[in-house]
Design brief:
This protein is mainly beta and 666 residues long. The longest helix is centred in the N-terminal third of the chain and has 28 residues, at 61-88.
């Protein structure tokens, strides 16, 4: 698609030309469909241009201007109402042609992708005699005007609309102004009715085309201006041109805001059954049989590149993978938790995650603090080299807290960019945070529990001196749980003011909590053959042993407490999706020392303490089978967007309709 952005010389013509009082009959005949809905009204438009009309006398110029200003306000109001309606609809609401769709369908590009099947180019000309623009959706008319009317300057394709009703789109109404011979367009039914009731010089010709009242992927705004001295409107889909007009023609061009949203036209229609995708492309699978779209080679991709696919044809689509490629997704039938190493070999001790699993922070012995904004793909060292022991994160990943062995507590309120020393030098071993990052709790090996209610500024000593090894917090910071090596499990329901012991004395080494603090998970390191993991569903009152004896060292939980993960030091990673009833081993034997989970339990991060030279950080998310055996499938009407994360890994950013993991390759 080519969008016209006229140079300043063309804007100069706008300033110099005086609007003619009459429009020639020949011009009216040629411009009968200006902006066009495809109707042929040449004869009637010829009469309108000549001035014949049976309507009542038109309002005065000032009255007409006032009515049109009210109309512009109604149009803006209707766009706002449409957005509010889109937000109110659940993502699984059925898409209906001509009606507002759920906001998710606009954001995923599904609305634009469906409309692309009936997209219609709209061309723009500048009339050097009248100083106005006209628009035509007819290539025949476009060519005729270019060949016969020298004073009509062709400015190219202005934008793309839809030729017929499509999901999430609304009709754009076309009026003919018998006083100026120029057409007017609005997506607002209220503005349409206002004009019909008050401006007899405007004749409604029907629906010109279809556009969107809600913004989204694959859509862009069409801006509108009112030319008060001419009584006409100017439209542009170019933000650069809009700004240029505002900067240089504000005396004559009143900016009325966004008229509606038109198609960007960046999706390619695929009528065959195979297609090799390119980076940052969009494809519309349009065949009665399944269309196989192969991912770009990883060597051709940059981190952050995207791919969008929609199914227009009855056969739907399949996204095929190349060697070693995989797509991270939480759809059923995925390969659960494929682990990928990141960063360098270090003596990693602790890791924490934001609720969405995208912002991570990790610490180790004789190292710096490392943060990642992209789910572990890249890492940045922060602060100084210290013997860090533990780290925790707020839900949004912006407020962090870390502890140092025989050192201080450090807090950050800017996602790890800057750190502030807190409290006193102690043998800090574990720290936890509330969801908002304000309620903190830290424990000392051979010391006491310390709590803070002001993001670490002040601390209060709690409970007795014990060999505390781990602590966890509910989202609100009120329900806490802490464990003691060769001691018991202790819980608090009042932000640490008082504590109650539970279960038996064991070699407790790690503990995790659900968001509400009712479902807990604790690890017993054991002796000899190791211990077990224990779960509680009543905020720690009773505990049940799970899995087998292993050298358990770290545990983590999803927000609902149903998806759990536990690490065996020198062993494997184990996950459970049923609150600990059953466990599945993952990855390989390593010196696992810490683990964290996203709120939904679908993104995990674990650290390997390693041997002499240390280990790495590992991230995991369920995905398609790696390589050419893995694929995604979508039915007709479905849409998906993928983003490349690097290392042959894609992430499914969004989807709509029926999308599934392919059962087998083609």
């Amino acid at each position: 698609m080519r969008t016209s952005s006229p140079p300043r010389t063309r804007l100069s013509r706008l300033r110099q030309v005086t609007l003619s009082a009459t429009v020639s009959a020949a011009l009216a005949l040629l411009l009968s469909a200006c902006g066009g809905g495809g109707s042929d009204n040449s004869g009637t438009d010829l009469g309108k241009a000549a001035g014949s009309s049976t309507a009542a006398a038109a309002l005065s110029s000032s009255e007409s201007t006032q009515v049109q200003a009210e109309g512009a306000a109604l149009n803006t109001e209707e766009l706002n109402d449409a957005l509010a309606e889109a937000k109110s609809l659940s993502a699984d609401t059925a898409l209906v042609a001509g009606q507002v769709a759920p906001l998710a369908a606009y954001q995923s590009g599904q609305v634009a992708q469906k409309a692309a099947a009936v997209q219609l180019p709209v061309y723009r000309f500048f009339n050097n005699q009248t100083g106005t623009h006209f628009y035509s959706s007819s290539s025949t008319e476009r060519d005729l005007v270019r060949a016969t009317l020298a004073y009509m300057s062709y400015e190219g394709q202005a934008f793309l609309a839809a030729s017929e009703a499509s999901a999430g789109l609304k009709p754009v109404y076309r009026f003919f102004n018998t006083q100026t011979g120029v057409h007017f367009y609005t997506i607002s039914a209220n503005e349409r009715d206002l004009i019909l009731a008050n401006l007899p010089q405007f004749t409604l010709e029907g629906i010109a085309y279809y556009a969107s009242a809600v913004t989204g992927t694959g859509l862009k705004p069409l801006y509108r201006f009112f030319l008060s001295n001419a009584g006409t409107h100017f439209y542009t889909a170019s933000a650069v041109e809009r700004q240029d007009v505002q900067d240089t023609l504000s005396a004559t061009h009143t900016y009325e805001g966004v008229g509606y949203y038109v198609l960007t036209g960046d999706c390619a229609l695929v009528n065959s059954t195979t297609e090799q995708a390119t980076p940052n492309a969009c494809y519309l699978a349009n065949n009665a049989a399944e269309v196989a779209i192969t991912l770009p080679l990883s060597a051709d991709l940059a981190v952050g590149d995207t791919l969008r696919v929609s199914g227009l044809g009855a056969g739907g689509w399949r996204i095929s993978q190349n060697t070693n490629q995989r797509i991270q997704t939480t759809l059923p039938d995925t390969q659960p938790f494929v682990w990928a190493p990141h960063e360098s070999n270090r003596k990693w001790r602790s890791v924490a995650s934001s609720a969405d699993g995208n912002k991570l922070v990790a610490v180790g012995e004789a190292s710096q603090i490392y943060t990642s904004p992209d789910a572990g793909l890249t890492w940045t060292p922060r602060d100084s080299v210290r013997n860090w022991t533990s780290v925790a994160s707020s839900a949004d990943g912006n407020k962090l807290v870390a502890t140092v062995d025989n050192g201080l507590i450090y807090t950050s309120s800017d996602a790890g960019l800057n750190w502030t020393a807190r409290e006193s030098a102690r043998a800090w071993l574990s720290v936890a945070s509330s969801a908002d990052g304000n309620q903190l709790v830290a424990v000392v090996l051979g010391g006491q529990i310390h709590t803070s209610s002001d993001a670490g500024l002040n601390w209060t000593v709690r409970e007795s001196t014990r060999n505390w090894t781990s602590v966890a917090s509910s989202d609100d910071g009120n329900k806490l749980v802490a464990v003691v090596l060769d001691g018991q499990i202790y819980t608090s329901s009042n932000a640490g003011a008082s504590w109650t012991p539970h279960d038996s004395a064991r070699r407790w080494i790690s503990v995790a909590s659900s968001a509400d603090g009712n479902k807990l998970l604790a690890a017993d390191y054991g002796s000899g053959t190791g211990g077990q993991v224990y779960t509680s569903s009543d905020a720690g009152l009773t505990w049940t042993a799970r899995e087998n004896n292993r050298t358990w060292y770290a545990v983590a939980s999803s927000a609902d407490g149903n998806k759990l993960v536990a690490l065996a030091n020198g062993g494997r990673i184990y996950t459970s999706s049923d609150t600990g009833l059953n466990w599945v081993p993952r990855d390989f034997d390593r010196g696992w020392l810490s683990v964290a989970s996203s709120a939904d339990g679908n993104k995990l991060v674990a650290t390997d303490y390693g041997a002499v030279s240390g280990g790495q950080i590992y991230t995991a998310k369920s995905s398609t089978a790696p390589g050419v055996t893995g694929a995604l499938q979508g039915a007709a009407g479905s849409a998906v967007e993928l983003k490349y994360l690097g290392n042959n890994v894609f992430e499914m950013v969004s989807s709509s309709g029926t999308v599934r993991v392919a059962a087998r390759p083609l």
